[in-house]
Amino acid sequence: MKWSQFNFLFHSEKIGYCLHNTRMLSLMNLDKVSYETLCLVEKHPDKAETLLDENTYKYFVKNKILVKEYEDKDYINKLAYTKRYACSEESKLGIVLCPTLGCNFACPYCYEDKLSSKPMSIETQMKVIDFINQYKDKKKGFTLNWHGGEPLSSFKVIKQFYSLIEKYSELPLLHSSMVSNGFLLTQEICEYLESKKLNYLQITIDGNKITHNKTRILKNGKGTFDRIIHNIDLAVEYMPNCTIGVRTNIGIHNKDEYSEIYKIFSERWKGKNVNVYYAFILNNSLEEKKDNSSVELSTREKCNFLLSLAKDGVISSSNLYPKVDCNSCTCTDMSAYVIDPNGYIYKCWADVGIKKRAVGNLDEGLKNFDIISEFVQGSDKFSDPKCNNCRYMPICDGGCNLYRVKSKRNGIPYEVCQYDDQGMQAFLEEFTLNNTKQ
Questions:
Q1: Which of 68, 185, 416, 438 could form a disulfide bond with 231, CB atoms 3.0-4.6 angstroms apart?
Q2: C-alpha 199 chain-centroid distance
Q3: 240-250 burial code (b ≥16 CB/10 A, e <16)
Q4: Measuring CA to CA, how many Å separate 333 from each of 146, 214, 281, 337, 346?
């Protein structure tokens, strides 16, 4: 037997001697003697049977603290299979549609920069419908996510495409969503999107008014905070059946004010169909259109940020306790595609507008299977030797797939780690202390 790679043995001044296992999601409290014995077992797993009494030894084998030689690797293979099976799920087609790549904003961290504002033509829209109809005998339906650029700057295209769906689509629309900066929302637009049963609308607020107006700016440099807040109020009133996702992109400049704005927004839209949440800024453009490395948080900073949210009551301490993570994204989903206004097809949202990163087009179909296979098979945590030897493999989301692609292509170092030992210990301490109080 061997010491599982998923074990984390540590001593904490706050909660004592502990053993956490990320495969079993277990947390054991130990006395000092047991801790010291396990320290020896960790160094000399071949002597485990002599160092432990029979019942303790069997207990640790049963709970995967001690495992067979290839058991950890077999478990990783099962996780990889589970994720990739989910990514090959065949019941629905995913379409991310960009009616334009133009935008009325000039956000300094945006990976889409200096792209054409030309709207999608009616001819290209019909080709999208034809592309969807190719799956009429293979899928139960399709999902639609409006993206850009700023999709509402080509609202005419959105209305045209919904009409084409109703007239010509042979595959039912199962779910629709939109990523918008929210600046162009009006009562008329909200009422229209409600009539088309838009399920989800994401709008970004980047901090308090001062901070937001430094980053979410119009091309003329003017701020947008007050207008967006007003427009979210409109969306809440006139789109009651659509969930409004109020997102904050977290970086060095605004991480310390998120707790406050979360509480303000949560109170403002309390009882409404609004989800206030955050996401971390990523330097995820393969073309390095924008270098966000100076504002992007490190693993240590991300862990500290999450810990601060728990201490401020923004998230529950139970949210800090690890969970198995095998999530996927558009680039790894074998039935999801991003389509730009010119009819080029991509696998990653950050690749849109970069023609050499297209996997095909609406005229010729899918043809660049090097990029498709690179994303689906070669860019997740299961393809990364570092991840495969990490104790946090089961609970880490693996980070941005494009980071690994960028590293392989350009030899650029990358950090996608979600956890480190210091952060994990702090999470488990916070969880344990709060759980004990209850």
A1: 185
A2: 19
A3: eebebbbbbbb
A4: 17, 35, 22, 8, 12
At 432, give phi and psi (nearest 5°): -65, -45
Find tokens 């601060």 and name the residue.
308
Give the least confident one: 175-179, 233-237, 301-305, 416-420.
416-420
Amino acid residing at 409: R
Confidence of residue 281 (pLDDT cuts 50, 70, 90): confident
Residue type, 15: I
Predicted local confidence at residue 288, as pLDDT? 57
Q: What is the pLDDT of residues 84-103, one digit of tens each?
A: 888 887 799 999 999 999 99
φ, ψ of residue 11 to 5 degrees: the values are -115, 130
Model confidence at 414: pLDDT above 80: no
Across-strand partners of 16? 12
Sign (positive or negative) of CA dihedral 397, 402, 403, 404: positive
CB count in 10 Å sphere of residue 108: 13
Amino acid 289 reads K
- Give the predicted TM-score (pTM) of the model: 0.92
Task: Dig out the tokens for 258 from the structure.
Answer: 């998120």
DSSP output for 119-153? PPPHHHHHHHHHHHHTTTTT-SEEEEEE-SS-GGG
Classify 252 as helix, strand or coil: coil
Strand residue runs (E) in 137-259: 141-146, 173-180, 200-204, 243-250
